[in-house]
Amino acid sequence: MTMRLCRGIAAILITLIFLPATIATAANKYLVVLDPAHGGSDKGVRLTNTVYEKDVTLFIAGEIRKEIGTKGPISIKLTRTADEDLASSERIQMARASKADLFVAIHVNAGFGRSSSGYEVYFPGFKKGSKQQGGSSEIIDDMVRNKFLNEGVRFAQHVMRNIEPIFPRQGRGLREAPVPGFDELDIPAVVIELAFATNIENRKKLTQKDAQKAIAEALSKSIKEYFTTMGQSGEK
The domain that contains 219 carries what CATH number? Predict the structure, then answer.
């Protein structure tokens, strides 16, 4: 195979990588996998004597599924629909097997002292690029990976903006950090830390059903906005 032909194939692949996802997805039907953190014997952080992180994340995920429904262009799948143990690897595999377009893990934060408050979104770090001796396949792999990371950041920006009214002036920004299992996903993926269970005001709000429903509405809006604006130039 000639060098000119190799370059031509690489150029075609790169073009396909950056085509708007609206073209690549049949009938504009998208699947979002929501991962309500913890479950079963893994309770997560405690908010009250009877309410734990696993309860809050499951309720919010269920409300998002109800809010978005099944008749529109977006479908929601939960990694768990009951109070059950589920390994992280099983959650990741579920997203892979279902060929999801977006993976969203929902958590409640804790620690850093009682004064820490607010919400933040984590995404895996960007790949720094292939070694100098790497071939075109490695370069393309890096570009694909970074495209998904860019899309994850774009979704996270919608989340930060829409949750702000619920926790005014408490946005802690986007956080780049390794997320276990995310390197196995070939789709945009983020972890949302809703608020701090160790903060009195945050904890109180997280245990209120009205606030939980408001969070679900904000995340539902973020999901809809993300797919509606996909592929639009200048989208922020």
Answer: 3.40.630.40
Total structural domains within the chain: 1
Determine the Cα–Cα distance for residues 28 and 90; give it in Å rounded to an integer: 27
Condensed to tens digits (0 to 9), the pLDDT of residues 145-169 reads 678 889 999 999 999 999 999 999 9
User: Looking at the domain assignment, is residue 13 inside a domain?
Assistant: no
Looking at residue 52, the DSSP 8-state letter turns out to be: B
Taking alpha carbons only, the member of 70, 28, 45, 86 closest to residue 230 is: 28
Can you give the residue range of the structural domain that contains 118?
A: 27-228
| H-state helical runs in the chain | 3-17, 21-24, 53-68, 88-97, 136-163, 200-206, 209-228
Buried/exposed 96-122: b ≥16 CB within 10 Å, e otherwise: eeeebbbbbbbbbbbeeeeebbbbbbb
Quick: pLDDT tens for 43-102: 999 999 999 999 999 999 999 999 998 778 999 999 999 999 999 999 999 999 999 999
Give pTM, 2 decimals: 0.82
